Amino acid sequence: MDKTPLNYALAYAALDWKVFPCWWVNDDKTCGCGNTACKNVGKHPISELAPKGQNSAATDKDTITQWWVKYPQANIAIFLAGSGLCAVDIDPRNGGDYTIEVLESEHGKIDSDVLQLTGGGGEHRVFLLPSGDVKLPGTLGKGVDFKSNGYIIAEPSSHISGQSYVWEMSSDPLAGAVPSPLPDWIRSFNINAAHASNETGTLHNGMSDNQYYDVLEALQFIGSDDRDTWLNVGMALQASGDKRAYQMWCDWSQASSKFDQNDQYRVWRSFKGKGLGSIDLPTIFKLAQDNGWVNSNTKVEQLPVIEIAQDQTTLEERLAKKHGLVTTPKELLSFPINTLNAVMLWMESYTREPQRQITMQGVLALASVLGGRKYQSQESNTTSMYLLVLGETGIGKNYIKEAIQIFLEQSNLDNLLSGSGNTSSGAVFTALRLAPCHIQITDEMGKHLQTARKQQNGQIAEGLTAMVEAYSSTTSIMVSKNYSNPKATLAELEAAKTIIKCPAITQLGMATPGQVYENLTTKEIEDGFLNRLIVVDISEPLMSQQATGKLDVPEELKEWALNIRKFNPKSRTDLSGIETDHKTKPNMDLVVFEDGALELFDNQRKTLREREAKGEFSLPDLTRRWRENAMRMATTLAVCENSDNPVITVEIAQWCIKYVEYYGQLFMDQVTNKVADSDFHRLSLAIMDLVTRAGDRGMTERDLSKNSRLFAATAPNHREQAFKALLSEERIIQVAINTVTGRGRKRSCFILPEYFNAANMVATEQNN
C-alpha cells in the first residue's frame, strides 16, 4: 500500500472504522489551520469538510477520497464510538507511565492487541467498546485518559513533536491485529477510590533504593550511542523487574542523537519473555567500571549533610525565587506616543494571543522604516533601527510580520518592503539599489547567525558585515566591495561599483533564544553586529483575545503614515521619486531636541563610561551602542508624534533610554550566562545554569544528565574537570542531601553555597 494519508484513511474505512480529516502539523510545528497560536495543533477537525466534527465521520469511499484529495496531508481521526472502539490514552509527560503501572499492579494488565505509539512518546491502547448501557470512566488517573465518546489521531498523521503516529509493529490493525475486549474492572472503575488507594500505597519495585541510586549513577559513565551497549543496558534493566526500569532506560538513551521513542518501545517489548540469562544489573556496573566509575556510596558519607524538604514548586518558580521575577516595567509595555499605541492595538488584531513585547518591537520597526531617509536629528541620528525578538517556537512571533506587510500594502507603501536581504554583501547592495529605504523582516535570524558562525568568512558573514556598514552610513555613503577582474575595463569596473547614499535599512529579526545563544561567540560580539541590535528576549505572558478580526488599517493611521513618508514636512513637496534613487542624497528634515533632552543622552554616555570603568558590565562591547540606539529610537518617536515639527522631548528621551538599557542589560546577562567560546566553558555554564535553577533541591550528576544533552554527551573525565573548576572557585559546593521523609539514602548533590549556608544556619538556630 502506498503510504499516503488517503490510502490509510480508506484502509481504516475498510475495517468499518469511521474516519474524518483533521488539520496537520507544519514543519515549523504550527497547526495547518493557520492559527499560529493554536492550542490543539494537528488534532482538531477541518470544519470545512467535517462541520459536525466526529459526527461527520464516514466510511464512504467517495467521501473520504474527496476529503483527502482536497487536503492530501490532513491528519486522520478515528471516531471511536462510531467504530465500536474505545481507547486508553497514556501521556507520559503528565505522569501516565507511573499511573498505568500503579493501575496494573492493583488490577492486572491493561494490554490490547492493538497498540499505537504517539509522536510524543505516549500510547493509544485500543479496545472493543462494550455493548449495552455501560457507564465508562473519562479518566483512569493522572496522565491516563479513557476515550469512548471521542476520537484518536491515527497513523501516519503528524504530531507536534516532529514524529508521526505509528502502530506498534506487532499490533497493527492494518496487518490483521484485532482490538482486545475491554478489561471488566475498567467498567466499574472509581477514580476517587483509586486516588485514595494510591496516596497511601507504594509501587512495588524490583530494586532496592541503594541499587536504584547505584544504577542511576553508573549509567552516567556509559555511552548510549553503541547499539550493542544500548541493548545490553536495556536487557539488564528489564531483567531487574523494576517498574521504573523502562523510564530509566529511556532517560539514559536520550543522551544519544540516535534516540527514537518508537524504536525504544518496540525493542523494550521484544525483551519480554526471552530469558535474558546472565545479562542483569552487574552487567551495567561492569560497563560503568570499565569507563572509570567508582561507586560514590562511600564518598557520600564523607560530605557535609543538609536536610532539605522536597520542593514541590516548578522549575520556573524556583528560578524566580532565586533571581526575582523578571517583570517588565509597566511603562515599557506602552508608548509615550498615542498614535503608536493605536498602531499597537491594531497590530494585535492579527493574532488570538498577542504578546505585548513582540508587538512593541513590531511597531518600532514599522515606525523606523516610515521615517527612514526622511529625518535626522541635530546629532545626525536617523530612524533606522535593527531590532530582534527572541521567543520559543510556538509562541506566535510571526503575526507582527503579517501586520507590517498589510499596513504598508494598504497604505500604498509596499515599496518599503524587502526580502531578508542580508544573505550576502551583494544581496544587501541589491536590496538597497532597488529601495535605499526598506524594511527587512528575517524570521529565522538564528539560522543566519548559525550559518555565519560555521562559514566564518562566508557569504552570510559578509552580509552581516555589510549590515554593520549600512547602520553606520545612514547620513553618508556606502560603497560596494571591490572584486578582482584583471580583464575588466575601467568603465566596466566603475559600472560594477555601487554607491548608496544615506542607506536606510530597518532590520526586524526573529529567533529562538537557543538559536542565538548557542551560536554566538565573543567574536560575533566584538564584530559589532550584535551591539547594534535592540534585543527583546520576551518574558511577559501571552494575552488572550476573545476574537481576532485581522482588521483593515484605519484610515487615520494610513493618513498618519503617508504624512510621515510622502512629503517634506517643511515644503510639503512630494518626494516619492527619491524612494528608488540610491544615487541622490536626500535632503532630510531636522528633528530638534527640547531643552534638557540632549542633556539626558549626554548624561547617559557619561554614566555608561563610568560604569564600564568600574567593571560593572560583563560584556562592555554590548553597551557601546546603547546611546546611539536610544537616540535613533527617540528620533523615530518624535517623527511619529509630529512629523511637521518633530521634537525629541524629555519624556521621549527618558522612555527611549530606559527601553534600550532595560532590554540591553537583560540581553547582556543572558549572553554572559549562556554564550561560551569553548566546549569546556559551555559545559561549565550549563552546569551552573541547572544548579542555579534547582535552588535548594540541588542537582545530582543524574539530574544534570537528564536535563542537559550537552552534559550527558560529555565524557566523564571532562565532566570531572568542570566540577573541579567550579568547586575550586566556590561557585558550587558538593553536599549530601537528606529529604525530610528520610526515605532512601543521602544523595550527592551540587548546590550554590548560599543554600548550604542558609540550611546550616537554620539547623544551628533550631539546635540552640
Supply the CATH class of the largest domain: Alpha Beta
Q: Which class of secondary structure composition applies to the elements?
A: alpha/beta
Task: Describe the largest sheet.
Answer: 7 strands, mixed
Mean pLDDT: 81
Gyration radius over CA: 31 Å
**Shape type:** globular
Low-confidence parts: 191-204, 308-325, 568-574, 740-744, 761-768
End-to-end distance = 77 Å
CATH architecture annotation name of the largest domain: 3-Layer(aba) Sandwich
Helicity level, as a percent range? 40-55%
**What's the total count of β strands?**
23
Q: In the CATH scheme, what's the topology name of the largest domain? A: Rossmann fold
How many domains? The number is 4
Number of helices: 30
Strand content: 5-15%
Task: Describe the 3D structure.
There is one protein chain. The chain is α/β, with parallel strands linked by helices. The radius of gyration is 31 Å and the shape is globular. The strands form six sheets. Strands 3, 4, 5, 6, 7, 9 and 10 form a seven-stranded mixed beta sheet that branches. It folds into four domains: 5-200, no CATH class; 209-294; 305-312 and 677-767, Winged helix-like DNA-binding domain superfamily/Winged helix DNA-binding domain (Arc Repressor Mutant, subunit A, Orthogonal Bundle); 333-413 and 438-476 and 496-539 and 568-576 and 588-673, Rossmann fold (3-Layer(aba) Sandwich), CATH 3.40.50.
